[in-house]
């Protein structure tokens, strides 16, 4: 790609007290990122200066007030300075209303820029939900913030680790509420969002598996009626529309089948049903060194009028500000954002 063709990606770094600024800086220290896109960091400039310093990176930082001012040259990080962190009171590793509010403002800014078509995609770092709520912003997470600020009604969270993909019927709700939300209309909508997304990613006929909600996918009604009353009718409707869909498949086997290549994506019924196997596939912890050897995987919000790709991990307060965070997931999120553009 030449310079004019590279998409502009707005990166909201997440909670400044976590590892988001560090993994953003480390990702932008990789030359190939500048070969494929023009990254614009949305954060407080002083936070990014500290991240570069304690990570010992050879990067210059340049403040801009709008995307058109960016140089987008490797070795110089363009930062849209939000001026929203008081460094005199700022602390790493701590839940604070100030940093929660700052992280929300970063998200809000990249969404505004994307809706105005000043950037081509948004990339998000990890936020802390407690900190955001402490700031008086009562949101369950990134997905819900994006849906509200873009006016999107039908959306879903997709996690991807290579060819291992899941998409959620529900996410940040109680288990009881997740059961209540496993309705035919919603399951069918998520199947359609998954089918559309994978086609856009270059898979012409996505093979979609739908996980059961109950053990053994209900065992023909022995362990619950949700499969019979809600999930199977949604699958039948999707099949009638020409989609390649199988299920409901017992959750204890469906992910192994996808890993083996039988499916391109699994529609899961609730948060942990999808997050646990995806993070098992992408996260690799080494007890001997007390470090994560890999933290790969991305989080994508389907159904939005703009592109959003994200890291698939949290703020990791335990290592924040120390220069030892792994940027692998941020690198993948940026690469996925480019692919989606």
Overall 3D form: globular
Number of helical stretches of at least 4 residues: 12
Please give the radius of gyration in angstroms. Answer: 20 Å
CATH topology of the largest domain: Isopropylmalate Dehydrogenase
CATH superfamily of the largest domain, by name, is Isopropylmalate Dehydrogenase
> Helicity level, as a percent range?
25-40%
The separation of the N and C termini measures: 13 Å
Q: What profile does the largest beta sheet have?
A: 12 strands, mixed
Number of separate domains: 2
- Give the DSSP E fraction (strand runs of 2 or more residues): 15-25%
- Counting DSSP E segments of at least 2 residues, the number of strands comes to 14
Low confidence ranges: none
CATH class of the largest domain: Alpha Beta
Order of helical and strand elements: EHHEHEEHEHHEEHHEHEHEHEEEEH
Q: How are strands sequenced across the largest beta sheet?
A: 3-4-2-1-5-14-13-6-7-10-8-9
Mean pLDDT: 94
Structural class: alpha/beta
For the record, the CATH architecture of the largest domain stands as: 3-Layer(aba) Sandwich
